[in-house]
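pasting for the record
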Amino acid sequence: LRIQQLSGGQKSLVALATVFAIQKCDPAPFYLFDEIDANLDAQYRTAVANMIKSLGSSA
């Protein structure tokens, strides 16, 4: 599967997964995201929001 074949929401999920994986290995003091949910479907918005919430509470 080529990255060009992914939808905007799928590309956003890949990018977020990469950032969160790097954060697990080499955490930064904070991250600033701007409209990361703009291209996500409703189900993925909720999943990403829950993941960010759980990562924030375990930090």
